[in-house]
Description:
The chain is of the alpha/beta class. It contains twelve helices and eight strands.
Amino acid sequence: MNGIDNELNEIDVSFVMTVYNKEFYLPAVLKALLNQTGLKNPQFIFVDDLSKDRSVQIIEEMTKDIKNVVILKKDKNEGISISINKGIALAQGKWVRMLDSDDIFPLNSTQKMIELADKHQADMVYGTFTKTGKEPMDIAAEYMPETFDYKYNPDALRTVLSGHFTRMGQLIRRSVLQDAGGADTRVFIQDESIPLRAARLAQGAIKMQANVVLVPKETNNLSKNTHQLDNDRFFAHYYFLKDYQKNLPADVVSKLYAKALSDNWKYVKKNLPHPYFSRDFYLYILSKTVSLKPDFILLDKMAERFLALSDVLRSKP
Length: 317
């Protein structure tokens, strides 16, 4: 009986949610999260980054009869990446699925992702997302389709570098995610750094052609600050390249460099005068046609320009 009891008590998936002033979304987000189908013994971890609204109270009220709930109330605001890493450190499940506190999971999405991961012995599973423009509660009871296309690739890092894995909602094997150190805390938003860091250690990735995240109508979020997005994309690739380039294949290093040049160009195109006559544009175009070796002196100068931005949030350890 002990073996059966242990199996029943084993946590199959840990959900990790960072929270900061999202009382408008949380009732619907939690309704969808707590009613995920096909799970044996899920864990729910909430990390509040010192919300000033009723976010924590809503979580406490809606999870009061749910087991395996952890609510971490921080005593200072540190930023998303630091918050999510504190949640990842508490995860005990075989799998971890992370979510923003304004994203809604179709009710059967986690079950579908785990089934695919187990079938292919893949460490990472991603899907697509859609901006619905609907009220949160109007999409809190939706399901994914039963059938959909997907692609398995044994090379997780090249998969991440060739696709768009920028929205939360991914499923990653806990051991891989924790060994990778979660998000890069030098980057405020975690969306780009988590896939890169996990994929470096992961065995296989799956991309589902199905919406695993439903985005309700948006009120106020960081995606409207293009400086923040350009900054965080650049630094996710910049730091990863500087940290690991000696241990990565040459084509992967070149791809990471091209990504950083592209991130930099997105900012330059929108913000500097005569951008198409700049070296930034020339290097961006060149990286699209040939494989370049990283110029770290140039990258460091780009990093200095981003660090000088006054309207970008930074992590506060």
